[in-house]
UniProtKB/TrEMBL annotation:
Top-rank lineage group of the source organism: Eukaryota
Provenance organism: Terrapene triunguis
Designated name of the protein: unspecific monooxygenase
UniProt-listed InterPro entries: Cyt_P450 (IPR001128), Cyt_P450_CS (IPR017972), Cyt_P450_E_grp-I (IPR002401), Cyt_P450_E_grp-I_CYP2A-like (IPR008067), Cyt_P450_sf (IPR036396), Cytochrome_P450_fam2 (IPR050182)
Source organism phylogeny: Eukaryota, Metazoa, Chordata, Craniata, Vertebrata
Gene behind this protein: LOC112118854
Assigned protein family: Belongs to the cytochrome P450 family.
GO terms of biological process kind: epoxygenase P450 pathway; xenobiotic metabolic process
Record keywords, A-Z: Endoplasmic reticulum, Heme, Iron, Membrane, Metal-binding, Microsome, Monooxygenase, Oxidoreductase
Catalytic function, reaction form: an organic molecule + reduced [NADPH--hemoprotein reductase] + O2 = an alcohol + oxidized [NADPH--hemoprotein reductase] + H2O + H(+)
Residues annotated for heme binding in this entry: C413
Length: 468
C-alpha cells in the first residue's frame, strides 16, 4: 500500500471541542462548501472529539462509496439518534447484523405489495383519499404539510402495519404530530450540539430531551402493534412487515445469537415509519412550492399529463417512460432541494487508503451529497431550478450518475424504490386533478431551503388548488 499513512488535511482542531467553534454549525453544509475550496475533495474536521473525514465531489464519492463499497459501508456515530433508538435497527447498525436486517427489510418491502395489493395499488388508493381531501378545500388557501404527511405515512403504514389509518384516527394524528415536532427539533442547533457533546448535553436542560420522550412514545405505539400482531399471526400468511419479522424471529429462536429480536423489530419498524414518512412528504411539499413559483413548468406538466394519461384514468408507473418532462421535473426537484446535504454519516470498517491518505478504522465519513447534486459540469447553473438538467437535446429523459439524493453504494436508502414511485404517482395525480394557485405573486415565492445539520426543508407556505 502506498502513502505514509497521514490523515487528509483540515483546519487545526482544539482538544475536546475540536473545530466546533470554527464551524458554522447552523449551516454546516454551506461551511463544508467553503472548506472544500481550501482543502479539496477530501479533508478532516473534528466535531467535538469525533474525527470526521468529508468526501466532496463526484469522483471521490464514487471511488469511496462504490469502488470501496464494503470498506465505506459502516454507519457513523450519531449519538442523538442512537440514544433515541436504544437498540440498533437497520439505519444505525453495523456489520453482519446490519446486513441481515437490511436484506430482510429490502426483500419484504418488495414483497409487501403483500400479494393482495401491489405497492403501486396502495399508493394509488391513498392518493385518491388525498385528492378527495384537496377537493374539500374548495379553493381556499391551506398549508399542505399534514395532507402530504398523512398520505405518505399511510403508504408505509399499510406495508408495515398491514393497514392504513383514518386521517382522524387519534393515535395516527398523535404519531404524525410527534414526527413533525421531531423534524423541527432535529433541524435546531441543539441536535448538532448533542451529536458533538453527548455526555455534556445529557446534563443540560433543553429541547433535545423532548426528542427522547417522543422516541419512547413511538416505541410504545409499535410495541402495542407488535403484540396485536402476535395474537392474530398466521405463520403461513404474513400480512405485513411485522408479521414477516415475527415469523423470522420464530425460525431463528433456536439460534441463541439471533439479530431478529423484539428490540430490533420495534426499532426497524420505527425507522421505516419515520424515514418512509418524513423525507418523501418534505420532498413533495418542496416540489409543490417550486411549481407554484414556476407556473410555466406546471403548465408543461399539465400538457404532458393530458396527452399521455388524459383525465379519465389514474396515472400508473407504466406512464412514466412516456412522460420525460414530468420525470425530469421530479428528478430536478430532488436534485435542487438536496434534502440531506451531508448524507447520513458513514464510517470505515477497516483502515482504508484513499488517494494518498490513510483513514483509520471507525472514522466517521460525511459524503457531501450537495457537492454532487450541485456539480456545475454535470448541471450547468446548479443554483437554478431547471428540468432541462435531465433532458437531452431531443427532450428525452437523460439519466445522470450524479443523481444521488438517496446516497450511493451499500448504504443507499432502503426505501428508494418506494419513494420514487410515490413522488411520481402522487405529484402526477395532484396535477392531473388540480391547478396550483399561489396566494402571493410567484416572483415573491422564496424557495431557499431552511438548512440544518440534518436536512433541508421548505419554509412554511399556503396555496390553493383549483379543480381542472
Amino acid at each position: 500500500m502506498s502513502g505514509s499513512g497521514k490523515l487528509p488535511p483540515g483546519p487545526i482542531a482544539f482538544p475536546i471541542i475540536g473545530n466546533t467553534l470554527q464551524l458554522n454549525t447552523k449551516n454546516l453544509p454551506q461551511h463544508i462548501d467553503e472548506l472544500s475550496e481550501k482543502y479539496g475533495s477530501i479533508f478532516t474536521i473534528y466535531l467535538g472529539s469525533e474525527r470526521v473525514v468529508v468526501l466532496y465531489g463526484y469522483e471521490i464519492m464514487k471511488e469511496a462509496l462504490i469502488g470501496l463499497g464494503e470498506e465505506f459501508s459502516g454507519r457513523g456515530s450519531m449519538p442523538l439518534f442512537e440514544k433515541m433508538a436504544q437498540e440498533p435497527g437497520i439505519v444505525f447498525s453495523n456489520g453482519e447484523r446490519w446486513k441481515k436486517l437490511r436484506r430482510f427489510a429490502l426483500t419484504n418491502l418488495r414483497n409487501f405489495g403483500m400479494g393482495k395489493k401491489s405497492i403501486e395499488d396502495r399508493i394509488k388508493e391513498e392518493t385518491r383519499f388525498l385528492v378527495e381531501r384537496l377537493r374539500n378545500t374548495h379553493g381556499r388557501p391551506f398549508d399542505p404539510t399534514l395532507f402530504l404527511t398523512h398520505a405518505v405515512s399511510n403508504v408505509i403504514c399499510s406495508i408495515v402495519f398491514g393497514d392504513r389509518f383514518d386521517y382522524e384516527d387519534k393515535k395516527f394524528v398523535t404519531l404524525i404530530n410527534i414526527l413533525e415536532e421531531n423534524g423541527k427539533l432535529q433541524r435546531s442547533p441543539w441536535t448538532a450540539l448533542y451529536n458533538f457533546f453527548p455526555t455534556l448535553m445529557d446534563y443540560l436542560p433543553g429541547p433535545h430531551h423532548r426528542l427522547f420522550k417522543n422516541a419512547l412514545e413511538f416505541r410504545r405505539f409499535v410495541l402495542e402493534r407488535v403484540n396485536m400482531h402476535k395474537e392474530s399471526l398466521d405463520p403461513n400468511c404474513p400480512r405485513d412487515f411485522i408479521d414477516a419479522f415475527l415469523i423470522k424471529m420464530e425460525e431463528e429462536r433456536k439460534n441463541g445469537q439471533s439479530d431478529f429480536t423484539v428490540g430490533s423489530l420495534v426499532r426497524s419498524t420505527v425507522e421505516l415509519f419515520v424515514a418512509g414518512t418524513g423525507t418523501t412528504s418534505i420532498t413533495m411539499k418542496f416540489g409543490l412550492l417550486i411549481l407554484l413559483k414556476y407556473p410555466e413548468i406546471e403548465e408543461k406538466v399539465h400538457k404532458e399529463i393530458d396527452r399521455v394519461i388524459g383525465r379519465s384514468r389514474s396515472p400508473c408507473m407504466a406512464d412514466r417512460s412516456q412522460m420525460p418532462y414530468t420525470d425530469a421535473v421530479i428528478h430536478e426537484i430532488q436534485r435542487y432541494i438536496n434534502l440531506v446535504p451531508l448524507n447520513l454519516p458513514h464510517a470505515v470498517t477497516r483502515d482504508v487508503h484513499l488517494k494518498q491518505y490513510l483513514i483509520p478504522k471507525g472514522t466517521t465519513i460525511f459524503p457531501a451529497l450537495k457537492s454532487v447534486l450541485y456539480d456545475s459540469r454535470e448541471f450547468p447553473n446548479p443554483e437554478q431550478f431547471n428540468p432541462g438538467h435531465f433532458l437531452d437535446k431531443n427532450d428525452a429523459f437523460k439519466k445522470s450518475d450524479y443523481f444521488m439524493p438517496f446516497s450511493a453504494g451499500k448504504r443507499i436508502c432502503v426505501g428508494e424504490g418506494l419513494a420514487r414511485m410515490e413522488l411520481f404517482l402522487v405529484l402526477t395525480m395532484i396535477l392531473q386533478n388540480f391547478t396550483l394557485k399561489p396566494v402571493v405573486d410567484p416572483k415573491d415565492i422564496d424557495i431557499t431551503p431552511e438548512s440544518s445539520f440534518v436536512s433541508n426543508a421548505p419554509k412554511s407556505y399556503q396555496f390553493c388548488v383549483l379543480p381542472r
